[in-house]
Specification:
The complex is a heterodimer of chains A (81) and B (438).
Chain A lengths: L1 H36 L21 H19 L4
Chain B lengths: L1 H31 L6 H9 L10 H10 L2 H6 L3 H18 L5 H14 L12 H10 L3 H13 L3 H5 L4 H6 L2 H13 L9 H8 L6 H11 L4 H13 L1 H12 L2 H4 L11 H18 L4 H16 L3 H25 L3 H4 L2 H31 L19 H13 L6 H26 L1
Helix pairs in contact in B: 2-3, 5-6, 6-19, 7-19, 8-13, 8-18, 8-19, 11-12, 11-21, 12-13, 13-14, 13-23, 14-21, 15-21, 15-22, 17-18, 18-19, 22-23
The chains are: A mainly alpha (81), B mainly alpha (438).
């Protein structure tokens, strides 16, 4: 029975890899085709004359994020805030 | 101390009340049915009758009720049912008190309580649990509905953005097929005698995928399906405890610090075509897995197409919730004392742990192998453990462990990619077993 189980194991792992490697190939191919022929999905633009909803576009938020990154970097180096 | 005293007083009160009622009954019985008939005679006289339709004495009625109490059943050899009631309560405690997969363990625990109620007939053809089992599990309907819900809730973008992690989902299926050898080896111990079909059904616990475990378990080991499902869901809940020690053991500190690049952007068309793609691959290579994969693909296509948002919402919420309740109760029905209280259950619980460990190790080691083959763009081996299907717990565990070693190394999206690959891999593993033994 151990021999049968070993055969089932080899068949099973072989089939799982066969199916998923095929999927990998198709996904990679599809990704390349999409990269070549399809434009990336356009993000919705804020109406003209209004500030963007995206936080990264706001200068205040950008400054705050930069300050946090700077602070984290200092703490990691042990320099203290 | 005070509570104990109050409890004793209550107990005493109940005993006195019961004694009074019994004495009163005996006294009245003497008047109504005639003196001299002993309790044993009364029971014997009524034993052949299926219903008390021709009048009854008070004593006969009381005897009949006494005979059909749970207490009488427990004392009359059905002690296993009492133990199973305790196990049902334990499952409820784990679900509610410890937050271990409560969505499944609560209905399973309650199903366990209901099915082990003596004389209630809950598992009979016309009992609540029997109806649920025959209508929803015997024909695989509920597991497939669950897969539709999972498909409608899954976002495959992380996998599409970094396709190579699909191999981690394949490698983690070593948890299934490696465990198969372990189950067969267990046959060398006294008390264990699993056939190859049963061993495969037990090994599917390693897929960390509840619906697949139920579908395969019901086909090839129907008497063990309850144990298999409970083991699968319990260990899925224990992933945060099981996986980290194995991940630490198999990786070096340097490997844990590996940062992975940004995934590429995925277009809507790719997301839309992906469920059709996995279905076509499954049809070509493994039609036995089409019911499972087809349900997942249908749910995901409905989510991504955007044309039927109502259906997508229904699959993610109402259908998923109803199916979860009914599936849990149906699985709980399999936790009858005669099916659960035997050495095989202990073997299944032990083997289940081994299955999760092997799956985790398979994913982590394969990530290291991929780095060895292609060192230019390395993978953090910690995401290998997310190749098991326990979604999204396994991905969270990978991310959390990576953050422990580098607070700015967020691997969540890569781990999610490996995790959804694990879902697909587990269906394929289940499909292979179905194809081999059906």
């Amino acid at each position: 029975m151990l021999k049968d189980a070993t055969i089932v194991m080899m068949l099973g792992m072989g089939t799982v890899f066969l199916v998923l490697v095929s999927l990998l190939g198709l996904m990679t191919l599809g990704g390349r085709l999409a990269h070549r022929y399809i434009k990336p999905d356009a993000k919705p633009q804020p109406p003209a004359g209004q500030p963007a909803a995206d936080g990264a576009a706001s200068p205040d938020v950008a400054v705050a994020i930069a300050a946090v990154w700077e602070r984290n970097g200092r703490q990691e180096k042990g320099t203290g805030a | 101390m005070r509570r104990t005293w109050i409890g004793r007083r209550w107990g005493l009160g109940v005993c006195v009340a019961l004694a009074l009622v019994a004495g009163l009954a005996l006294a009245v019985d003497g008047d109504v049915a005639g003196a001299g008939a002993s309790t044993v005679e009364a029971v014997t006289a009524t034993a052949g009758a299926s219903a008390l339709d021709e009048g009854v004495s008070l004593r006969e009625g009381m005897d009949r009720i006494a005979q059909t109490t749970g207490l009488a059943a427990f004392l009359d050899g059905q002690w296993g049912a009492a133990i199973m009631l305790g196990i049902g309560l334990l499952l409820l405690y784990l679900g509610v008190g410890k937050d271990f997969e409560p969505l499944l363990l609560v209905p399973i625990g309650f199903g366990c309580l209901l099915v082990n109620a003596p004389f209630a007939g809950m598992a009979s053809e016309h009992g609540l649990l029997g109806i649920i089992y025959n209508a929803g599990i015997e024909n695989d309907l509920l597991p497939l509905l669950i897969f539709m819900g999972i498909g409608a809730m899954s976002d495959f973008s992380p996998l599409l953005g970094s396709p190579r992690v699909v191999l981690l989902g394949a490698a983690a299926q070593f948890g299934v097929f490696g465990t198969l050898l372990g189950v067969v080896a267990l046959n060398n111990l006294p008390g264990f005698d699993f056939s190859l079909k049963e061993a495969s059904a037990i090994a599917i616990i390693g897929a960390a995928d509840g619906p697949t475990s139920i579908v395969v378990g019901r086909r090839f080991a129907p008497d063990m399906m309850g144990s298999i499902a409970v083991a699968a869901y319990s260990y899925m809940a224990l992933v945060p405890l099981i996986q980290p020690p194995i991940m630490r053991l198999l990786t070096t500190p340097r490997e844990r610090l590996i940062r992975m690049g940004q995934e590429r952007e995925v277009t809507r068309l790719e997301r839309l075509l992906f469920p059709i793609l996995i279905l076509l691959v499954c049809i070509v290579f493994l039609p036995a897995a089409v019911p499972l994969m087809g349900s997942l693909a249908l749910g995901n296509f409905i989510r991504e197409c955007g044309a039927v948002e109502r259906l997508s919402n229904a699959m993610q919420n109402e259908i998923m919730n109803v199916a979860t309740i009914l599936l849990g109760l149906g699985v709980g029905m399999q936790l009858e004392a005669t099916k659960f209280l035997r050495p095989a259950t202990l073997g299944i619980i032990g083997i289940g742990l081994m299955a999760f460990a092997l799956g985790t190790a398979g994913g982590v080691i394969f990530a290291k192998v991929m780095n060895w083959i292609s060192p230019r763009n390395p993978i953090n081996p910690l995401i290998g453990s997310a190749g098991v299907s326990a979604f999204p717990m396994a991905a969270r565990v990978s991310t959390r462990l990576a953050l422990e070693y580098d607070p700015q190394n967020v691997l969540l999206m890569h781990a999610m990619g490996a995790n959804v690959a694990g879902q697909i891999g587990s269906i394929v593993a289940g499909g292979v077993i179905l194809a081999l033994f059906s």
